[in-house]
Amino acid sequence: MHVFLSHISEEASEARALKKALESALPDLDVFVSATDIHLGDAWLKEIDEAICCAKAVLTLCSPGSIRRPWLNFESGSCWAKHLPVIPVCHHGLRKDRLPDPLNIFQALELDTPDSCRLLVEQLALKLGLQPAISFDPKQMFHDLQSERPTRSEAIGIVLSHQQNQWDGGGQSLFSLANSLPAGLEGDWSFQTLADERPFLSTDLHKLSGLIFSSPWRAKLEPETISATVEWVRRGGRLLLLGFELGDRHHDANLAELSHHFGIDPDANIVGPPGFGDRKPYDIPVDFDIAKGVPHPFTEGLTTIRLANVQTVRVAPGGVEWLRVGDNVVYRPRRESVLYRNGTMTTPGGTAFETNSQAGWLAAAVEAPKGLCGSGEVQMIGSWDLLGRHQAFGGDNVKLIARLLEWLSGRKG
User: Fold this and answer.
1) Residue 413 lies in a domain
2) What angle do CA 109, 114, 117 make, to 5 degrees?
3) E strand or H helix that includes residue 32
4) Do 42 and 119 sit in the same domain of this protein?
5) CA 347 to CA 332: how far, in whole Å?
């Protein structure tokens, strides 16, 4: 008796574990899982279509991340059109009442206890006329499903760098290579460069402890990448977002679409020292007085952090503003002089700015509210230039970066 199990690729390990558990509980059952049953060289779409045609029921593996993905709805809809019973199986904390259309029209089940494992086996046995194995143990099944989740390592993923129109496939990120770290930095960290978006659609993402994420100029993140990253954080990932001066609209990017999920919204401002008049303080180092911020483990015992090309950042209530503008000045493009070309904001000549010298309370680095991050944590610094691309930033920057990397590796809270 055949059952089709629909899942997204990064939840392949969970799908394989569920296949193994169900086939053990119902000896006459054959569960089709594309991650296991389609092999190299197979015509995968044809294989899936044939598997659906042979199926007597369909299980749809639903998580907070997978329900945002079109493929899951496509497969479920195809099965429903063939008049097959569809059972959404909710996991990773997703509740039945959070299922979107059209998945919420089906009778769903939350697979979060041994009793729910027993109920799933009994429902399939009843629908398919099968008999559970005498040895079936719901507690053991639940334990096996929990233990099959991907094991998270201490590796830190490098997602994007501030290069032009590209992913960091060439390893040019600020943090991508050990020898790009500043002199005097002591520590042992493992880095993995993510050269394109494919790792976000596989289980590899969930093996990473941390991600350093800086969106490049004129390169937007796909909706699936954003959804996968949000789900990764909510399952315990640690995300460091790095902004850039004047923000998304100026760089034709969409980092804010990702950060907004965690209550963080970067502004179209740039921070500089006093005295630039109506000019943009591009590439000018800015010193931030730690005492002007809020006490935080990253800055404990530090005095000054130097950054360049910094935008201000807002965070929702419950978040922490651990680095503030202080005695520096915020420079904002004059509204009447801004031009938009194909949605991109430009400031001709970089000499049409207005200043705000009373904006010391605005933040340049924040921690997201824990209630928006699930089991994970998110930090955002309003600059990708933490090391000094023209002249190395030393001093307290080295200590800050070491603490950030320790946090990203999962070794410290």
Assistant:
1) no
2) 45
3) strand 30-33
4) yes
5) 10
